[in-house]
Amino acid sequence: MLSKAYTGALVQELRAALREELAGLRTDLSALEQRVDEMETNAQSCEEQHRATEVAVTRQGNMLITLRRQVEDLENRSRRNNIRIPRTVRNGN
Q1: pLDDT tens readout for residues 11-45
Q2: How far is residue 75's CA from residue 84's CA, in Å, rounded to a whole number?
């Protein structure tokens, strides 16, 4: 049968081993917490850049539409000057 002193020593060894394991787990957990914080910061930065890029692309798309309309208008205006009326139509013949 196990003596009380022997079981007490086993319990003490077990507690010491558990404390060491817990200390290691706390260290690992702290390192993981730092990595998660860094990843969240990077993700937030990426989201902000993405939003800024979306705004810029939307603005450029609107500018492109405006420029296309202006070019079309200029082309239409320049064609008006190229209309030639035949002489027979001018004289009424």
Answers
A1: 999 999 999 999 999 999 999 999 999 999 999 99
A2: 17
Tokens of 53: 């890029």
Tokens of residue 43, six digits: 């993700």
Please tell me the pTM assigned to this model. 0.55
Helices (H), the chain: 4-80, 87-91
3-state secondary structure of 81: coil
Rounded distance between C-alpha atoms, residue 93 and residue 81, angstroms: 23
Query: Taking Cα atoms as reference points, which of 9, 52, 33 lies closest to residue 60?
Result: 52
Separation between Cα atoms, residue 42 and residue 50, nearest integer Å: 12
